[in-house]
Design goal:
binds adenosine-5'-triphosphate, 139 residues, Heat Shock Protein 90, 27% strand, alpha+beta, binds magnesium ion
């Protein structure tokens, strides 16, 4: 039996993506948002599985990236969307503190929001909500 070569040797990615979730969003911006949230989940996720879900919730599309890593305290949750704000030491986990700032700016520009749910030591969930449907005229 031939085995397929594994292209990914990080922790498992669990995906549950609903079909037909449609909106007027900038593809490059969405890619940046997803990439930043995923790279954080992998970096701070303690090597445990990361789950990505997409579904329609009322008038919004909800993209959630969940990890089971180090988590984020309430005080840190309030500041990490600002530029250069980090809650970990550079020597433990590299980075500039730009990714979440950029992701948040892009989501706001598309009329959405990003929320965080987290229990320190247990993991974090980043929840992106974006308006569904076609753009309104003049918006
Ligand atoms: N999934 C997560 N779990 C725990 N902490 C997180 C998570 N995502 C972000 N953080 C915290 O928020 C800080 C800011 O995140 P951000 O993505 O802006 O910066 P970074 O990942 O450190 O660097 P960069 O994204 O610029 O390479 C991180 O340094 C970390 O302290
Ligand atoms: Mg980052």
């Amino acid at each position: 039996m031939r085995r397929r070569r594994r292209a990914w040797d990080g922790p498992p990615l669990e995906t549950d993506l609903q079909e037909g979730v449609v909106g007027t969003w900038d593809p490059l911006a969405l890619e940046q948002v997803a990439e930043n949230l995923l790279s954080n989940a992998l970096k701070f996720g303690a090597g445990k599985p990361v789950a990505v879900t997409l579904r329609a919730e009322g008038q919004a599309a909800e993209l959630a990236v969940r990890d089971r890593g180090i988590g984020i305290s309430e005080a840190d949750r309030a500041r990490i969307f600002q530029r250069f704000e980090r809650a970990v030491a550079r020597r433990e986990h590299g980075g500039f503190g730009i990714g979440l700032w950029l992701a948040n700016q892009l989501v706001l520009a598309m009329g959405g929001t990003i929320g965080i749910e987290s229990t320190p030591g247990e993991g974090s969930a980043f929840l992106v909500r974006l308006p569904l449907g076609p753009e309104k005229a003049g918006a």
